[in-house]
Amino acid sequence: MRKTTGMALLRPGGPWEPFSFERRDLRADDVAVRVTWCGVCHSDLHAAEALTEGAPPLVPGHEFVGEVAAVGPDVTSFRVGDAVAVGNIVDSCGACAACRAGEEVFCAEFPALTYGGAENTFGGYAQEYVVREGFVYALPPGLDPAGVAPLMCAGATVFGALRTWDVGPGQVVGIVGLGGLGHLAVKFAKALGARVVVFTTSPDKQGPALMLGADETVVSSGAVAMASQAGRFDFILDTASGKHDPTPYLRTLKIDGTLCMLGTPDRYEPESMVMAMGRRRLAASAGAGRPRVREMLDFAARHGITADVEKLPATEAGTALARLAANDVRWRFVLDLRELG
After folding, report:
1. What pLDDT, in 10s, does the model give residues 8-66?
2. Are residues 176 and 54 in the same domain?
């Protein structure tokens, strides 16, 4: 077994502290990654809030970059010292229809996630991670590694949705919410050639949205402002994580327009007649398979796209999650694992 150290929550409500544990020995097709930067995702916060007494220590993290520390004998794509990235899926059955189509995120056996599973208990808030070669990606040259880390979850999630619905030139695209996912959705949608409009409930985010590349902003809490957008949008990507009513956004869609939801509030209650009058669609999306992730990284490299990040030492994981809960970040935290331990 391979010993390593991570930042862990040992009990509900407790402090985040260094925690030593073991990774599996390398299998023939395994890559050991020395983690350098790991993004902090809302799902990490949800996992911390859900931790119960008696549960194993929580070491989150599913969007990270690093360097290859060792490889198994059958690995051919990577060598020790290569710069690499890993996302939120680290294995799948490889045999179901979804996996054969390169949509491992929808694996019929459910994909192996980067942490919280039977085998991958501990995630990327750690010095080292062991993963199958097929779920490791070459880090694009010329991009800030810390800014690439959030692309492996947040970036893949928004890019996958934008590409699935063929966002491109001539379209008017709305982005709901301006956070870790939303700010990357703005960058990718703009680079794909769309006219990008950001919906936000916070007037103070209008300026930052324009600086990120948005063409326009709409304060969605204003009824008059929303009414002025009726029937305008080809596609809207809703990245807001809080519970909210999608009906006002459905009204802004053109005939046959689509509103794609990425957040996971308790429930949505859209008005069915608003959807019927215009053949509007309410859809959902989650993550991306390996071919799409590779496409996303290539696209990001060509267009110079990375996440806007605030870097913190790994020992400040608790601070990052507390500030994330308070919506005090622009736009993604990344933890520096290089000095841990």
Report:
1. 999 999 999 999 999 999 999 999 999 999 999 999 999 999 999 999 999 999 999 99
2. no
Model-wide pTM > 0.85: yes
The answer as to whether 292 is a domain residue is no
Residue 62 inside a domain? The answer is: yes
Residues 112 and 139 in one domain: yes
Over residues 150-175, mean pLDDT: 97
pLDDT in tens, 71-98: 999 999 999 999 999 999 999 999 999 9
Residues 171 and 185 in one domain: yes
Give the domain range for residue 49. 2-152+307-336
Position 107 in a domain: yes
Sheet holding 281-284, edge to edge: 216-219, 195-200, 172-176, 233-238, 253-261, 281-284
pLDDT higher than threshold 90 for residue 282? no
